[in-house]
From TrEMBL:
Family: Belongs to the zinc-containing alcohol dehydrogenase family.
SMART domains found in the cross-reference section: PKS_ER
All residue ranges annotated as the Enoyl reductase (ER) domain in the record: 18-345
Protein name: Zinc-binding dehydrogenase
GO MF annotation list: oxidoreductase activity; zinc ion binding
Gene3D superfamilies in the cross-refs: Medium-chain alcohol dehydrogenases, catalytic domain (3.90.180.10), NAD(P)-binding Rossmann-like Domain (3.40.50.720)
Entry keyword Cytoplasm: no
Keywords (A to Z) from UniProt: Metal-binding, Oxidoreductase, Zinc
Pfam families: ADH_N (PF08240), ADH_zinc_N (PF00107)
Source species: Phytoactinopolyspora mesophila
Cofactor section: Zn(2+)
Superkingdom of origin: Bacteria
Length: 356
């Protein structure tokens, strides 16, 4: 089974070719189909901002490392129990959660599946011809969601989890830093949640415009404008009740504390370099301003709601760039160029499979 994988550890942007990481297509053995499993023929798998971090060895350095956790596809086989207990059928269009939570460990029993003690034991790459998942990971797509849009279910679940962690109240003022896919989806989710003065902070004009087309009220170019000054202007001098970082950029993180309102919440909703430390004056930000700082690792309990939200979200700009599986290396180069809002890999041509 052909699978896109990291074949050499290293920074994918390294100018020194000897040190640069590499992406290739390798052949992995088919995964066994257990009684509770579902085999999915993958239609689309999207490249995530976190994938290049995997190439740097963030979660391990034994190559090849199979990639792909944002995918859609069509069911081609069902284990006996998955068939009788889920209502899923061969031919159903699905997407899902790449993580399988064990359900047995203490965190799983305690409403904290994101800390499942077996979370790293089960990693089945989805940027592949097929993937076999446990039935608990699989969700049937709504009729009006195409396979192309369906691969955004997982990033949408991250936007939902970010929204959960903001503990937003309707009417709260909200800023989203970063106009990549997670920032765009988070802004749209916050908009539906009752955000006001919704402001996107993003250096790339096309991304600012995309956010403005889909619900943002204001946009700040942090490279060209005084971010703090604009934030004060937009919020009547108070700062934002909710600030979300979806940029993952260490340069952006510090300034976000200053645009938060007293009592505000700052969600660092991205993946950061493992050696980066944020300078934080506890007296100013936690004592005097009572800020709540939090983050998002993965998104348990968010998939059913992400599935409900997906038909309402504007995502056409995120799914226009598509590469075939065999050109995965080119797809990653396109992702790294920053010229595409998001890059998809077509693993099989299944566009003709209609809604059931
Ligand atoms: Zn992702
Ligand atoms: Zn567990």
């Amino acid at each position: 089974m052909r699978t896109v994988a990291v074949t050499k550890i290293g920074n994918l942007r390294d100018t020194d070719e000897g040190r640069r990481g590499r992406i290739g297509v390798v052949d992995f053995p088919d995964q066994p189909l257990g009684a509770e499993d579902v085999r999915v023929r993958v239609a689309y798998a999207a490249i995530c901002g976190s994938d290049p971090h995997l190439a740097e060895g963030f979660f391990g350095t034994d190559v090849p490392i199979g990639l792909g956790h944002e995918l859609s596809g069509v069911i081609e086989a069902l284990g006996e129990d998955a068939a009788s207990r889920t209502g899923l059928r061969i031919g159903d269009r699905v997407a899902g959660n790449f993580l399988k939570f064990c359900g047995i460990c203490r965190p799983c029993r305690d409403g904290r599946q994101q800390f499942c003690e077996r979370i790293h034991d089960y990693n089945r790459p989805g940027m592949a011809e097929t993937v076999t998942w446990h039935a608990s990971q699989v969700y049937e797509l709504p009729e009006d969601v195409s396979l192309r849009k369906g691969c955004l279910l997982e990033p949408t679940s991250v936007a939902v989890r970010i929204a959960d962690k903001t503990r937003i109240r309707p009417g709260d003022t909200v800023a989203v830093c970063g106009g990549g896919p997670i920032g765009q989806l988070a802004a749209q989710v916050m908009c539906r949640y009752g955000a006001t003065s919704l402001t996107v902070i993003e250096p790339v004009a096309a991304r600012r415009e995309m956010a403005l087309r889909h619900g943002a009220d204001h946009a700040i170019d942090p490279t060209d404008e005084d971010q703090l000054e604009r934030a004060r202007e937009v919020t009547g001098g108070r700062g934002f009740d909710v600030v979300i970082d979806a940029s993952g950029s260490p340069r952006a993180t510090r300034g976000l504390l200053d645009i938060a309102a007293y009592g505000g919440t700052v969600v660092y909703g991205a993946m950061y370099p493992s050696d980066y430390e944020l300078p934080l004056n506890l007296s100013d930000y936690l004592y005097l301003r009572e800020l709540t700082l939090t983050g998002v690792f993965v998104s348990p309990y968010a998939f059913p709601r992400a599935l409900n939200l997906l038909p309402y979200l504007f995502t056409d700009e995120l799914t226009t760039t598509v590469y075939p599986l065999e050109d995965a290396a080119d797809a990653f180069a396109a992702h790294l160029s920053g010229n595409h809002p998001k890059v998809l890999i077509r693993c099989n041509n299944l566009d003709d499979v209609g809604a059931a």
